[in-house]
# Entry
Amino acid sequence: MDADDLAEKLEDKAPVRAPGGGGRGRGGRGGGKSGSWGKAGDGGKQREKQISMALSRLLRHQALNAGIKLDKEGYAPLDRVLQWGALRTLNVTVQEIIQVCADNEKQRFAMKPAAGGEGAGDDGSADPSHWLIRANQGHSIKLESEAVLRPITLEADNVPPVVVHGTYFAFWPRIVESGGLRRMGRTHVHCSTGLPDDEQGVVSGMRRDAELLVYVDVRRSLEDGALTWWISDNGVVLTEGVGEEGLVPAKYLKEVVGRKEDAGTLWKDGEWVADLPENLSSRPPPAKGGRGRGGGRGGTGGGRGRGKGASRAS
# Structure
């Protein structure tokens, strides 16, 4: 499991509530009307987060269960999306959806006019039937990669110079035991073309709190004909891996090093170099939302209650 997997698994389990005590008003507390959260402070940011979480859950995982048909590119009719339970409860407007798509730091979503609609091509249309929306990547819903993503090939000479997968110290022993990176519950293994704090402003493909950097030799895997690689509209590099588990074999791991803490070089050019120091391998992954380590309310010390914690996720 990578850092994004863990965070999104926790988000998927979190209830989506209207900000401001669960009220159904458009702005919640400070959310304002028609998506005016830019000046609304913490209340507006919380509403933006709630909308983003609900969209991710629906468009990546729940659309089929909700009776919403995605087209071959993963787009759904926005009017149907806004009628889905959590978004209907939040009473979300079209303008708020447009703003979430524009402002989301990881560029998780894309919108386009619905073909043939009366307002098609009108960027300011407030009629949801004039719009389609999709998640750019991260689906557990099966979609054809060719329709949603751009291929990375030697012939196109578009192999990124850096492809890196971010994970947590706690997950590294399992990665080694399993023989490489696995896609887990997703359709793809997710990688970034740089680090979140790089000057080029990489926005997606890795959590900001990732502890371990796994650099992947995409070019070598393509030369061997072993893996198929893709890149999404928001710059995430993806592969289905091989076999039922969607494995990126360890022979294609170019280098594995700590991100902010010195863990030494653990892997180099497809070969084991050293084990992760015990004090790091036994450390639970950071919790989403700052409740202490462990992911649940219990964590490891200082938590409230008896949550099992995210450190048990696999």
Remarks:
- Residues 9-14, 18-40, 289-314 have pLDDT under 50 and may be disordered.
- DSSP finds nine helices and 14 strands in the chain.
- Residues 41-62 form the longest helix (22 residues).
